[in-house]
Hints:
Blueprint: H1 4-9, E1 15-17, H2 26-34, E2 38-42, H3 48-61, E3 67-71, H4 77-86, E4 91-95, H5 100-107, E5 112-117, H6 120-128, E6 133-137, H7 150-160, E7 165-168, H8 174-182, E8 187-189, H9 191-195, H10 204-212, E9 218-221, E10 229-232, H11 235-240, H12 247-260, H13 265-274, H14 279-287, H15 289-296, H16 321-341
Parallel strand pairs: 1-2, 1-8, 2-3, 3-4, 4-5, 5-6, 6-7, 7-8
Antiparallel strand pairs: 9-10
Helix pairs in contact: 2-3, 3-4, 8-16, 12-14
Bound molecules: flavin mononucleotide (FMN).
Amino acid sequence: MQTRITELFGIEHPIVLPGMSWISTPELVAAVCNAGGLGILASGPLSQQQTRDAIATIRSLTDKPFGIGITLMMPGAKQNAKIALELQVPVINFSLGKGDWLVEGAKQYGGKVIATVVTEKHALAAQKSGVDALLVTGHEAAAHGGEVTSLCLVPNIVDIVDIPVIAAGGFADSRGLVAALALGADAVAMGSRFATSLESSVHQNVKNAVIEKRVADTIYSKNFDGLYARVMKTPAAQKATKKPMNFLIATIKSFKAAKMVDMPLWKLLVGLIAQFDKIKMLSLFGAATEKLEAATIDGDLENGVQFIGQSQGVIHEVKSVQTIINDVVSGAETRIQSLANKQV
Ligand SMILES: Cc1cc2nc3c(=O)[nH]c(=O)nc-3n(C[C@H](O)[C@H](O)[C@H](O)COP(=O)(O)O)c2cc1C
């Protein structure tokens, strides 16, 4: 199936693995690329050395194009982005910040840039900055989807930009791909679906919970990490999202999280002071790391909190990446054909 996105990135299928901390690892990225999609490495929890190593590992596992996700607001993100430019990563996907300099840097070596957006305003600004494509994340999405549902947000943004759009948030099977194409998108990004694949490093407890949970079993709240985010509905998540964490506790916990990416305390403090207007949000964001790790890595859904999308309600099986992609693509082709033949 060819679209503007498959042509732009030189991939076989209009399917993207988005960046997901601890999940979009080199192995999962390479599995998606080798199956014909575009895998995007999550660089959020990686130190500079780990970012270099992860890029090298992907290159050892696949010769296909791949991407790297950069959450610009996070401490350490700019340094990781500079490494991605230096190592000429084919696709840079940035979010939560201004990426003009990334566009400039990637253009030097023929790299492509995707901006993740959740509003019209940011979509227009990103297009103006010269990005090659947008990843538009609707309300249904795991983690930081927008206020507006994919059903309305995707066509709304498609109408106001000229560049191709990857639809994210609620897409997990062949029906989702057909729907996204019908809305004017050129590809889908599937987070919850690939997180629940055989190759995903998410703890088995989380995979089992995704299969069991229903479409309404998520919570969308600003109280977890300071930004509106969607998580799996569990007693721990209900407790964690009831009210925002105390600022002082959040700051201490965010220092612990910074250690994870080998960031010296002085650098973190300079970063926090430089973004003083966002200091509370950054602290809460960092503080959430502990609970996310507990769920995603340790499988502790009693105390941890798991990002997940509403699409968990249509995920009924743990399948390999290759099977997921085959099923989505062949199912979509059949559906498109049967829709074309339908008598109205
Ligand atoms: C388990 C999980 C972890 C995620 N972690 C991150 C993350 O660390 N950073 C980020 O920007 N998005 C993260 N996301 C969101 C995805 O990048 C993507 O926007 C979302 O999954 C799309 O919606 P879907 O889950 O309905 O496919 C995560 C998603 C999942 C399912």
